[in-house]
Amino acid sequence: MLTLHHLECSQSFRILWLLEALGAPYELKKYDRDPESNLAPDEYKALSPLGTAPVVTDGDLVLAESNAIIDFVLDSYPESDLRPGAGHKDRARHLFWFHAAQGSLMSIQSVGMVLTLLETRTPWPVSSMLRTVFGQVRKVFVKPRLSALFELMESDLAKKPFFGGDNLTAADITLVYPMYAARDRGAFDTEYPNISAWFNRIESLPSFIAARVKDDRERINFRF
């Protein structure tokens, strides 16, 4: 049986939600982060060379990387609506957002996070010029690209209720991690009513609610 090794406040919530949405049989093993380093414990790191979440095991199989796991699991559910097949009216939309989650949104957020750390934690006064450079790169590179993505999301969600189209798909599931990370940083506080409606929509789904219960956290709080 598939075992999900679930690290708190991490991308592995995606797989927990996926399995609940499918009604799939699985075992859940939870791990807390190291209280000092905020990283995965050694027991978790031993599962995968990168020590990253999520990780699933199934017999001798050990598989990491969110979208790889999603595809692997969905291979056993070929009739599932979570992955629109070739020729489906929502196929292209689903594929775009499924891959944009990792290829665009998370990568830009990662760059922004690193630049913010460099800008705010590089010692003064020697680094004053570097701080200015880091801030400028965030201003001219990160913020415009995130804004463009959010505007496209807002536009697409005006046409259909989910990123994957008329129904929940794996595109919505893989976007959940970077979208909550963005929301926690205030990205959607004043604009984007369609994005806000998407959050409300997914949070009302029985599969999402079940995943939250099994996650056993008081609130969605992802570490980016």
How would you portray this structure in words?
There is one protein chain. The chain is of the alpha+beta class. The protein folds into two domains: 3-83 and 210-215, Glutaredoxin, CATH 3.40.30.10; 91-205, Up-down Bundle (Glutathione S-transferase Yfyf (Class Pi), Chain A, domain 2). The chain has eight helices and four strands. Strands 2-1-3-4 form a four-stranded mixed sheet, with helices on one face. The longest helix has 32 residues, at 128-159. The chain is globular, with a radius of gyration of 18 Å.
> Low-confidence parts, pLDDT < 50 over ≥5 residues?
none
Largest sheet geometry: 4 strands, mixed
What is the overall number of helices?
A: 8
Query: Mean pLDDT across all residues, rounded?
Result: 86
Key words describing this protein structure:
224 residues; alpha+beta; Glutaredoxin; Glutathione S-transferase Yfyf (Class Pi), Chain A, domain 2; 2 domains
Quick structural summary:
The protein is of the alpha+beta class and 224 residues long. Helices cover 55% and strands 8% of the residues. It folds into two domains: 3-83 and 210-215, Glutaredoxin; 91-205, Glutathione S-transferase Yfyf (Class Pi), Chain A, domain 2 (Up-down Bundle).
